[in-house]
Amino acid sequence: MKREKRVFNINFILYLMGRMISDTGTSIQMMTMPLYIIDAGGSAATVGLFSFASLVPALLIYPFAGVLGDRMNRKTIMVITDFVSAGVILGLAFISYLDKMSLTLLLLGQIIISLLNGLFDPATRGMLPQLVGQDELTKANSKVASLRGLSVLLGPVIGTALYANFGITVLFLINGISFLLSGISEMMIRYKHVKRESAEGISGIAADLLEGMRFILANKIISKLCYFFLVLYSLIQPIFSVVLPLFYKTHLNYPDTQYGYLQSILVLGMLVGSVFVGLFFGKDNTMFTPLKIGCNILIGSMLMFSLLMFPNILFVLGNDSILYFALLAVILCLFSAANMFINVPVQSFIQRETSNEYMSRVFSIVGMITRGGMPFGALLYGIVLDRVEVHWIVLGATLLVILIFAGFLSSLSVVHHH
Questions:
Q1: CB count, 10 Å around CB of 286?
Q2: Per-residue pLDDT at 1
Q3: How many other CB atoms are there within 10 angstroms of residue 174's CB atom?
Q4: Which is nearest to 310 in space by CA: 296, 326, 324, 295?
Q5: Which domains, ranges and CATH numbers included, belong to the chain?
Q6: What is the pTM of this model?
């Protein structure tokens, strides 16, 4: 047993390494994309469209990826998608090096990467509970989230510095190589695929999907969490991907490198949040306490964020002052820490409640539902931002979120006590 446990931990380390390397590469590239698009003559709508192209294809392929992840070897899926992603991104690097890059090509490349990511994600989430014990899940998820945080933290600082000095080609090159290394790391994981009987063809896939849906609907808490995250993500995620870069470029007088710092602060919050969840709730099998804490911090930081955007406050504090920047940084840090208090325990809860044969499907369906609102949220924010002042939009979104939280937490406690 001792030997097996040690091997399992080596597997978990390889799993973490693969994730960390490709996450770092991706964040180096992705964080600078809005800046590159604006520099290349794109508008708010183009940034919104890029956000849309990063998310929608993954969502469309998610349900099938879940069926694949439960039928096929999850390790094989991870390795192949990483290698193909590397090929596509290195292709973009070459096109950019030849000076033939266009916004259309960029969007096309992003769509392919997004599809591959959609295949990769349910397989990795389904694989994790097989690499660590049930009682270790919250700790393991908090480690995955912390390392992801760390890699995304390194990304913007390295990315904006490299972009300012060397342009976009180098960023593509680094990201492509990171996917190659990630695939190599995953190849070394010792993992046993449990084959199960399943019907062939389209009807078999449909039957598998329906089984996954039934499982989710039968679990009252998981289905409630799905609706909650759907609304939450569509309202909150675009604030990071669309509102923040635009507000930064149009209302604040800081250089681009400072934008990189803000992105890093967001991730620092993520890191702090996931570490705290691991420390205080790692042994705890409940998700309700951290969830409530997270919801309260999130509302508080959103309110403060919308206040900071009001012209009068911007005028008093100064749109290029150290004080304003520091306040913005603290609020964004709290904002993303709150997200981890909500995310990590919920993920562990779903992994504990789900048996291995359903794992990838349940995560793919939950992922599709919860993230389904994000791209439409991004598009909507992009359109509304051209017509309504940014501070009113964020304040409106905050008030909506308060109402949603109140309703959700009260309905969840009813289900929980039953």
A1: 12
A2: 38
A3: 18
A4: 324
A5: 2-192+202-417 (1.20.1250.20)
A6: 0.71
